[in-house]
Amino acid sequence: MKRSLVRTAFAHRSFAVGAVLTGLLLLAALLSMVWTPWSPYDIDVPNKLQGPSAGHWLGTDSIGRDVASLLLVGARNSILVGVIAVGIGLTVGTALGLLASTRRGWTEEIIMRLSDFSFAFPAILSAIMMTAVFGPGMVNSIIAIGISNIPIFARVTRGSANAIQSREFITAARACGKGPWRITLEHVMPNILSVLIVQATIQFALAILAEAALSYLGLGTQPPQPSWGRMLSEAQTLLFQAPMLAVYPGVAIAMAVLGLNLLGDGLRDLLDPRLARKR
How many Å apart are CA 7 and CA 4, to the nearest integer? Predict the structure, then answer.
């Protein structure tokens, strides 16, 4: 049974490609925790802007740091930001969405209107405001991205839960004397879990992209911690002298976002067979 599920999953092109790219991202992050070719914090100015070699596989940057090491540790920081930010949005947003679906009335209206209001403050704008008050840093960017994810998960949860609430087995559960919260936990939540998993995968990709954008603007991960976005920012003044310094982090961001989006698209089809049949 497990083998057939694995075969079905990897027979889906989007899922297979997304799983491979996401696996490489996770592998790079895990590898950076135990080994890197060089320390990403070592500065070697006499050997700056070197091309790829046996000693430095992808060359060195403008202050002599090993580019391969920076990319590996940057993958770890991107995943860290993505996991925590999506975790914030998933936890708080799901709770609010379930509350809105279960209580209805004014509770639902207030939560949905607050969600609409929060859409006026995307991650980058929220980070700019938080930076003005608390200063730039990874923690503030995580909080800003996490807050921007809350209304998205709240809306997805509320819409999916409302659809489940109208099903016959929910009516049968009510007839058996089950309360609204017991129905929500025992029947609604398991049936919307697949939707939340797919949405979390997509938001993970957007969180990585947002973190790179914030770091590019100088609002995200601060030196000396490596960041793909800041690598792009530092490379923009050297495009004609060392163009590959911008290519490497740019490709890393593109592949990470592409892999997670393809993985989410594949999971959506696999977890909802009706979509697979339409295709």
Answer: 5
Beta-carbon contacts of residue 23 (< 8 Å; ≥ 6 apart): none
Domain-wise residue ranges, the chain = 2-38+53-278
Q: Domain 2-38+53-278 in CATH: superfamily?
A: MetI-like (1.10.3720.10)
Instruction: Tell the burial category of 15 from Cβ atoms under 10 Å away from its Cβ (0-12, 13-18, 19+).
Output: buried
| pLDDT tens-digit readout, 2-28 | 556 677 777 888 999 999 999 999 999
Distance in angstroms (rounded) separating the CA atoms of residues 221 and 239: 22
Alpha helices in the chain (DSSP H): 2-11, 13-34, 67-103, 105-118, 123-134, 138-165, 168-175, 180-183, 189-216, 228-235, 244-271, 273-278
pLDDT digits (tens, 9 = 90+) for 85-95: 999 999 999 99
Q: How far is CA 12 from the centre of its chain?
A: 22
For the ranges 48-57, 79-88, 123-132, 187-196, which has the lowest average pLDDT?
123-132
**Whole-angstrom Cα distance, residue 179 to residue 61?**
61
Two structure tokens written together for 119:
């859409």
How does DSSP classify residue 38? S
Count the neighbouring beta carbons within 10 Å of the beta carbon of residue 271. 14
Whole-angstrom distance, CA of residue 279 vs CA of residue 269: 9
